[in-house]
Amino acid sequence: MLRHLMVTAGLALCAQFAFAAEAGKIIFVAGQAQVVDRAAVQDGAVQEGDMLTTGADGFMYIKTLDNGLFILRPNSRARIVTYHVDPVNPANTRIKLELLSGVARSKSGDAVKLARQNFRFNTPVAAIGVRGTDFTVFTDQDTSRVAVISGGVAVSGFAGACSPDGFGPCEGIYTRELSAAQRGQLVQVRRGQVAPQVMSSGGNGPDNIAPPRNDEPIGKNGGINGAATAPAPSLDPIKNVVIAQLPPLAPAPVVNTPPPVVEEPPALPVEPPLVVVVPTPVPPVIEIPQKDSGILWGRWQRIGAPPATIDLTAEQERSQLLAVRGNFALFRTPGKEYVARENGSVGFRLDSSEAYVYTNYGPGIRTTAAATINNGRLDLDFGNKSFATSFDLTSKDETFKFQSKGDITANGRMYGEHAQGRPGYLNLDGVLSNERNGSAAYIFDGVIDAQRTVNGATYWRK
Known about the structure:
The protein is mainly beta. The protein is 7% helix and 43% strand. The protein contains 4 helices and 28 strands. Keywords: Signal.
């Protein structure tokens, strides 16, 4: 009986997380602050879609359903557009925040960390995705700036396939990433700008525009993002068809002359022709099995003498661009959609790879050296929806060990935990496929030491 009650309670808790309209609770409020048209109060609930406003002296701290943090500083307007959390299947989680103006801070909660691909922070001009992150944003109608406290962000302007309506980061050649290791820098997006800029904060960061209170958790930094605009309704024009009417014809004159009587001979019977019906043969239906979606990876720009191995623009016409990291891109080719298994584990062997080590000697001074990858391991645990990988990277007679772990989504995407600038750990984006009886690939970057970084790609087979 006790076990039954515990299971029932657990299911009820899951249902509350999956369907509750409440996005969070206010844990601190100071100065002028409103939720919709009422004054904000401590312990007050914030619902999905509520407009949040702070005045010149206003602060509002909101604890989200999954123990995250959303903070509004003075003279700010924002909304928690969607906060749908599914703890049973994180792939169904959908979270979107929107800063219309002012300064806000977002610290990822437990659900965001499990479903980073479904988190979006919009401003009027930019889309922000996270790598399991704590960041601050400033925006007005034309400019947004983003700074990172911990983790990392991926920032894009609204153009092409990146729209305010989407969820997750906009991945592409015009996306710019910023991590907490890049202290004193921020990402800036201006309206109409094709690609964001990574630049020195120079006193223009969010914390400079609206400093945090002394009781705000953790330290300082500044940032940006874009607010969603509601799409205009599509109205189909109603066409009126006008039918011209002709004037009525005059009636025919009545003739009273009786018609002559004509006797017709009796009709002879007519034999119908013999019709032979030949059935049309029906060709047999042959079902051609759809091939599995595949993996395409490569270097999209030249490094020294070696030319690029993939045409990024042309390939986007044929395949789905999944991620770009440094000089490498990852695509999924058309075909039968991959569906991850519900349980079990599998290991892959390293089939091929390409990597380069970059050494920075100062502003504008960087050398490049090719590297090789050996002793690779990639292990998947479908029951826990997780993976772990490691390899040895060798360049100029030096060998460095790298590793990473992360999450597997239902459609076979792999997202690594953010390395946060730690030597020997990888930031990576990957994908699984059923082609060739099972394959995988990921592109990555990482830090060797204070001067050297690595960027590359790996391809794996069962």
